Structures are given as structure tokens and as C-alpha cells.
Amino acid sequence: MTGQADRDDTLRILAVHGSGRRTGSVSRKLTGELIEALESREGTIDVVHRDLADGVPLVDEAWIDANFTPDSERSRAQRAELADSDALVDELEAADVVIIGSPIYNFGIPAALKAWIDLVARARRTFRYTDSGPEGLLKNKQAYVVMASGGVAVDSEADFATPYLRHALGFVGIDDVEVVAAERLNIDGDDAVDTARMRIADLVFTAGDPEFRAA
Q1: Do the Cβ atoms of 15 and 48 come closer than 8 Å?
Q2: What's the pLDDT tens digit per position in 11-25?
Q3: Longest dimension (CA), the chain
Q4: For the stretch 200-212, what's the b/e string if a residue is b when 16 or more beta carbons lie within 10 angstroms of its beta carbon?
Q5: If you compute the radius of gyration of the chain from its CA atoms, what whole number of angstroms results?
Q6: How much is the pLDDT for 9?
């Protein structure tokens, strides 16, 4: 990721908030601090916030029928059925950087975040099938996954959330994924948050330095 001086356009960030908590959420707090760090580095950013606590539609039979109908053959009702999904995909396509903030709920991701993934994993929009298998279409993007957990160690055998998000992002073509973890908060508390903050500083101000990346 190069600095603002090397780019003609503003860094466009999509921040997806998966936590059901609006106050006291560690993943929301750290996501905000990550955005602030990127703004400090880049100078100018444009942020779109997608707060899944506001609600997200679920995939149902009508949605599936509309999605599998060729675009040129969709009825007005089918286009309306896909409108929310289209808007979410548009946000992803427009972003240079995708930040997903999420807690670990019962060893996995929140239901709303899973619903968001279901709506943005769209054949012919974000991935396509080829003779050699599926190919992600969202190329040249960077992602940060900000994970918060109460007792589960991130990337442990009990963590089904972080590997899933990596795989889902990679499936649609976003392979450059960095994880910021505030893990085992019920045990490590403030130390876990401090560790996550140091990780943010390292990713944004050290790994984000083009001279460092070229070394």
C-alpha cells in the first residue's frame, strides 16, 4: 500500500461493523483507531461505514431465484429483490481497503456478518467459475480483519471466525488480509487491547511504508 503522494485519488475505505453492540464494543473501537491511523498516514481518506447492527437481509428463495436468473431476464420484482445485495457489492467494488470489525460469537462470526457475506458473494459479480475452479473478481484490494474475543484465542482450534473471514475474502479475490486481534479479553483485558493497538501501528506505519515493503 503506497502513500497518498503516489496516488491520484483518495484512499477509499469500506468499514464493515459486525458487532451487535453499539457501545462498549472493542472491535468497533479498534476499527475506529485503525481508520484514524490510515488517515494519519494517507492524509486524505473516504470512509463508508456499513453497520450490520442496523439490519441486513437474509438470503431466501426469492433472492436465490433472482440471483440465478440472467441479468437481462430479471423482472422488476427480481431486481428489487437484489437491490440491497447490489448496493453492498457496489460498496465493496468501490473500496481500496476493506476493514471488517467482528467479535467471535460462539466460536464463529455474528449472524449479521454471515448474512453480509452471503449477499456479497455473488457469481458473476464478485467471483466467477472457470475451468480451473472459482476465481475472485475483487482484485487489488487490501483487507484488515479486526477480531475481538472474550475467551477464544484467535486462530486457535476453537476459532472458526478468523479463518472463515480470510477464506471468504480470498474467495472473492481479496488475498491481502491482515488480522488485528484483541483476544481473550476476559482473561487479558487491557493488555489484549494494547497488543492490538501495537499491531495496528506496525501494520500501518511500518508495513505500510513502501521502503519497508520493498526491503
Answers
A1: yes
A2: 999 999 999 999 999
A3: 55
A4: beebbeeebeeee
A5: 18
A6: 76
Residue 147 near residue 161 (C-beta atoms within 8 A) = yes
Is there a contact between 185 and 153 (Cβ–Cβ < 8 Å)? Answer: no
Burial class of 73 by CB neighbour count within 10 A (0 to 12, 13 to 18, 19+): exposed
Burial of 88 (0-12, 13-18, 19+ CB in 10 A): buried
Kindly report, residue by residue over 164-213, the tens digit of the pLDDT: 999 999 999 999 999 999 999 999 999 999 999 999 999 999 865 544 33
Return the C-alpha cell found at 153: 484465542
Q: Is 44 exposed, middle or buried (0-12, 13-18, 19+ CB in 10 A)?
A: exposed
Number of residues that this document lists for the chain: 215
**Sign of the CA dihedral 88, 121, 104, 164?**
negative
Q: Is 40 exposed, middle or buried (0-12, 13-18, 19+ CB in 10 A)?
A: exposed
Q: How far is CA 3 from CA 7, 33, 185, 205, in A?
A: 7, 18, 33, 10
Q: State pTM to two decimals.
A: 0.90
Cell of 118: 452471503
Condensed to tens digits (0 to 9), the pLDDT of residues 120-169 reads 999 999 999 999 999 999 999 999 999 999 999 999 999 999 999 999 99
Half-sphere exposure of 33 (CA within 13 A, CB side): 18
φ, ψ of residue 214 in degrees (nearest 5): -85, -15
